[in-house]
Write a structure and sequence with these properties.
The complex is a heterodimer of chains A (327) and B (357).
Chain A: E1 4-17, E2 20-33, E3 37-41, H1 48-56, E4 64-73, E5 76-77, H2 83-89, E6 94-97, H3 101-104, H4 111-123, H5 127-140, H6 146-149, H7 159-171, E7 177-181, H8 189-206, E8 209-214, H9 217-223, E9 226-231, E10 234-240, H10 241-246, H11 251-258, H12 298-302, E11 308-311, E12 314-316, H13 321-326
Parallel strand pairs in A: 3-8, 3-9, 6-7, 7-8
Antiparallel strand pairs in A: 1-2, 1-4, 4-5, 9-10, 10-12, 11-12
Chain B: E1 11-26, E2 32-48, E3 52-56, H1 63-70, E4 78-83, E5 86-87, H2 93-102, E6 103-106, H3 120-130, H4 140-150, H5 167-179, E7 185-189, H6 197-214, E8 217-221, H7 225-231, E9 234-239, E10 242-248, H8 249-254, H9 263-266, H10 309-313, E11 334-335
Parallel strand pairs in B: 3-8, 3-9, 6-7, 7-8
Antiparallel strand pairs in B: 1-2, 1-4, 4-5, 9-10, 10-11
Helix pairs in contact in B: 3-4, 3-5, 4-5, 5-6
The chains are: A alpha/beta (327), B alpha/beta (357).
């Protein structure tokens, strides 16, 4: 197995707000190997996007603050780099794809110009060469008639095509790692599948590491190698994708899987996790999931569960993971 | 649609040949109409008492416009909407108000559909201001608290403001408001799309509980096919302002006959690795048509892999395709395609726990 490309160690991020300190990320540990696809699954407020932003170095600071941890990329702790060094890493070595392509692209510049900018800025290419490169990239992400459309503006493309342009932009400098934050959430179902397929294909072709942030269990199953499930700013379960669907080892993961409507349960009540996701300014004591957990016992209210090793390459932050796994 | 609801039930709501066109104009001072966005372009549907009709379709297919027409937030360009046999499209004033009481709406976005300056009590009780006959002034507070209780909120929170609630709770407030006038029909436009997965299930369960408790009929619009299937008795698939296929949920999901079948989205449905790989979505290179410029004949033909000359000339009717007529098979349901054929979607029966989406 290749060594880790990216390793996040005990990362903590908080936001100072008027009504207190929101602890968005509370000790995240995870690693991505070269060529691996790691899916980070979580609901809104679970800290998945904040973790990604901290790794990319695009966290709004203030109000955000990284209060601890390391982000080791190819042996270097990125959090110790100066901003100008960091800028050299972004784009060239790791790139990000955002959820909303329309607001991530500049509406007054043509897509060809924006794609070409990657080459004029980072590689010092001439405008003309950069434009040729832009066409090449658009071809690569299968935008039909790339040559004719290179001078079009973002609004002239459909949502799916715009997301392809975002992908092209992330690929431009052939980074080793791509972080995709909900890349298909804003798209229609039919288009979602196309964009996901494209992303998976390019990832295989180029052998990049891919971190796929999503709340959609269906998207994950198809493309990920490994899954990390986040809850209240921590990773509560991590496992190879097959294992987690077969036998989840954390009650939260189990609850998420059970709340998907299924054919054999039509007409019956859906399983629903009771209660609400926690308020990040007042995270419950002990295991943050305990107020919603069907297995809750006294120890859960007082002791924060560590990430127990379930088996090689699998972890669960539940005191009663054995019960969950076999229950 | 040929037969509206089945089981001989009298339809509460029946829609015939409904159109909503928005004019496209040119010029600043002297506006001249240069075309129209045909958002809803000939929809027929029926809804029986106590039934749930799911409507699925891509964004831009007109499903939200249809919802707004059904509750008469928009006036249709042509066509009729019959509520218990009475055409509501031409009503106005007092008669319209009486009908509106019975057809209520739940909106998609629980963040923008509640007035941030009103308390929950005022929001849920506002329908009584408009329809005072439902609840005399003195009894309103009690009624509102009962409603909050019914939807699973704490009745003591009547004086709180929307921002003090989470997304799921806000959607419950929206549902309570929809229930206030004891309607018979609720049109829900993407009611759970904005919610987190763990909360979606809670709200879907609530809607089902309310349906059996109050005998409500639902028109449930969503793009999440697994949820639509879970909650619906019948499903209509919409494309560019028209319903192109309709039938019972299993007919649509497992035996689609229209080339635009939800299988495209079933692609996503392989929620477990190793499960059967659903059919591929339609090819990316074909240009999508838009409602301002609808293709002649069959409107799906520009994206359809089966399209032939006939498709450009003749509009296919929404009826049971000739090939399946008289057959007692799940493929014998309404489908607006000249070349309809049954497509077996790989059944999700690779084990008792196979999910649909």
């Amino acid at each position: 197995m290749p060594g880790p490309l990216l390793e996040v160690r005990d990362l903590h991020v908080e936001f100072r707000l008027r009504d207190g300190v929101a602890k968005a990320v509370n000790g995240v540990d995870c690693a991505v190997a070269e060529g691996e696809t790691l899916a980070v699954l979580g609901e809104s407020g679970s800290g998945k996007s904040v973790t990604a932003q901290a790794v990319m170095g695009i966290l709004d600071m203030p109000p955000g603050r990284i209060t601890g941890g390391e982000v080791v990329f190819r042996g270097r702790d990125l959090l110790k780099l100066r901003e100008d060094e960091r800028r050299g890493v972004r784009g060239r070595e790791m790139a990000m794809i955002f959820q909303d392509a329309l607001s991530s692209l500049n509406p007054v510049l043509s897509v060809g110009y924006q794609l070409g900018e990657m080459f004029t800025v980072h590689r010092g290419m001439s405008r003309k060469d950069a434009k040729a490169k832009a066409v090449e990239l658009m071809d690569r992400v299968r935008i039909p008639a790339a040559k004719e459309r290179v001078d079009d503006y973002p609004h002239q493309f459909s949502g799916g095509m715009r997301q392809r342009i975002m992908i092209a932009m992330a690929l431009a400098l052939e980074p080793d790692l791509i972080i995709a934050d909900e890349p298909t959430t804003a798209l229609d179902v039919t288009v979602q599948a196309q964009v996901m397929d494209l992303l998976a294909e390019l990832q295989r072709e180029l052998g990049m590491g891919l971190v796929l942030i999503t709340h959609d269990l269906g998207v994950v199953a198809d493309v990920a190698d490994r899954i990390a499930v986040m809850y209240a700013g921590r990773i509560v379960e991590t496992a190879p994708v097959h294992d987690i669907y077969k036998a989840p080892a954390h009650p939260y993961t189990r609850g998420l899987l059970d709340s998907i409507p299924r054919l054999d349960r039509k007409g019956r009540e859906l399983y629903a996790i009771r209660g609400l996701p926690p308020n990040l300014t007042r995270i419950p004591s002990g295991c943050p999931f305990h107020p919603r957990c069907p297995l809750v016992r006294d120890v859960c209210r007082t002791d924060v569960p560590p990430l127990y090793e379930v088996e090689d390459g699998r972890g669960s932050a539940c005191h009663f993971w054995q019960e969950t796994l076999h229950g | 649609m040929a037969e509206p609801a089945g089981r001989g039930a009298e339809p509460v709501l029946e829609v015939r040949n409904l159109h909503k066109h928005y004019p496209l104009t040119q010029g600043v001072l002297f506006k001249k109409q240069v075309g129209a966005v045909r958002a809803v372009d000939g929809v027929d549907l029926g809804l029986a008492a106590g039934e749930t009709l799911g409507i699925v379709g891509e964004s831009g297919c007109g499903k939200s416009t249809l919802a707004r027409l059904l509750v008469r937030l928009e006036r249709p360009t042509s066509g009729t909407i019959l509520y218990k046999g009475e055409d509501v499209t031409r009503l106005s004033g007092r008669a319209l108000k009486a009908v509106r009481r019975n057809i209520q709406m739940v909106f998609q976005d629980p963040y923008t559909s509640l007035n941030p300056r009103m308390t929950v009590g005022d929001i849920v009780g506002e329908p009584y201001e408009i329809h005072p006959e439902v609840a005399p002034r003195g009894s309103r507070r009690q009624k509102v608290q009962d409603l909050l209780d019914v939807v699973g909120l704490n009745p003591e929170h009547i004086h709180r403001y929307p921002h003090q609630f989470s997304g799921g709770q806000r959607q419950r407030i929206g549902i309570a408001r929809g229930l206030a006038l004891q309607p018979e029909v609720i049109v829900a436009d993407e009611p759970v799309s904005a919610l987190d997965v763990s909360v979606q299930a809670q709200v879907v369960n609530l809607l089902e509980k309310l349906q059996s408790e109050f005998g409500l009929s639902y028109v449930f619009i969503a793009h999440d096919l697994s949820i639509v299937r879970h909650i619906s008795d019948r499903v209509g698939v919409m494309y560019l302002g028209r319903i192109v296929e309709t039938g019972r949920d299993a007919e649509i999901y497992d035996h689609p006959t229209h080339p635009l079948h939800p299988g495209a989205a079933v692609r996503r449905a392989r929620a477990r690795p190793g499960g059967p790989r659903p059919p591929r979505a339609d090819p990316p290179d074909r240009r999508r048509a838009v409602a301002a410029n609808i293709p002649s004949g069959c409107r799906f033909r520009t994206r359809c892999w089966k399209a032939r000359d006939r498709c450009a000339l003749e509009v296919p009717a929404l009826a049971v395709p000739a090939a399946f007529r008289g057959e007692d098979s799940p493929a014998a349901h309404d489908s607006a395609c000249h070349f309809a054929e049954e497509k077996h979607v790989v059944p999700a029966e690779d084990g008792p726990g196979a999910p649909v989406g």
